[in-house]
Design a protein that fits this description.
about 0% helix, 19 strands, 5-stranded antiparallel beta sheet, mainly beta, 4-stranded antiparallel beta sheet, 1 helix
């Protein structure tokens, strides 16, 4: 199956996520100081695809700092949805949009975001670290290493505090691998594990040969459990 997308050049990053039978591709293009995201939904069973169009034809003339997409599934409505959190500047403000895969249309919603953006609002979302579990989209926040949660059923945001052990000691690690110096980011990231949200922590993994996964066992009470993975292959040879 060959995918054909508009504006395929100058792509900075590409990501993919599978959720309830559909695959969601996003890629980011850099326009000066601003990032513009594109998205494509693919049904592998039917070999059909749908590329999202911008809900505002004048977006290129607006000062949009960032506009990432996040894929989700609303179990209460049996419907795939796409969350977009668009950051505009001068003045700094946010626009929250929901795209319905049932009606193929955008809808703007008014929700409070200040609870999650007390620091620098332009650098808070880790758009490459997100996942959806039980109709809730979870997004890693960069500054506080906490998690922003968006409930697709209630259409409300909340924040989840991560355990103290999630915060890396240093932001990156230098190590020698195959006689070459490499740099590894220690930024934790979200995964889906056994029907739950997990946060992978690989800080100092080259020193201890251990990788830690914190699993959110109880969403309501914010109860985490920790699993450690040990392997000699994690360290340098």
């Amino acid at each position: 199956m060959t995918l054909h997308v508009s504006e395929p050049y100058s792509v900075r990053t590409t990501q993919a996520e599978h959720l309830n039978g559909l695959v969601f591709f996003t890629w980011v293009k850099k326009f000066g100081a601003y990032n513009h995201a594109h998205a494509l939904v693919v049904n592998p069973s039917t070999h059909k695809s749908y590329e999202l169009t911008y809900q505002n034809s004048n977006y290129i003339y607006e000062k949009v700092y960032n506009m990432p997409y996040f894929f989700g599934y609303d179990e209460s409505r049996n419907e795939h949805k796409i969350l977009m959190i668009r950051t505009l500047i001068e003045p700094t403000r946010f626009e929250i949009m929901i795209f319905s895969m049932s009606s193929y249309s955008w809808r703007k919603i008014d929700v409070e975001l200040s609870i999650a953006f007390n620091g620098n609002p332009l650098h808070r979302l880790n758009e490459s670290s997100a996942s959806c579990v039980d109709s809730v989209v979870y997004i890693m926040l960069l500054d506080a290493i906490d998690i922003l949660a968006f409930d697709l059923r209630m259409e409300k945001f909340s924040t989840i505090s991560t355990p103290e052990g999630v915060v890396p000691h240093v932001t990156s690690t230098s190590y020698i691998w195959n006689h070459a110096i490499n740099n590894k980011s220690n930024q934790p990231f979200i995964i889906k594990i056994n029907g739950c949200i997990g946060v992978v922590c690989h800080d100092r993994v080259m020193e201890s040969n251990e990788m830690h996964i914190w699993i959110l066992q109880d969403y309501e009470n914010c109860v985490w459990s920790k699993k450690s993975l040990h392997s000699p292959s994690l360290g340098p040879s």
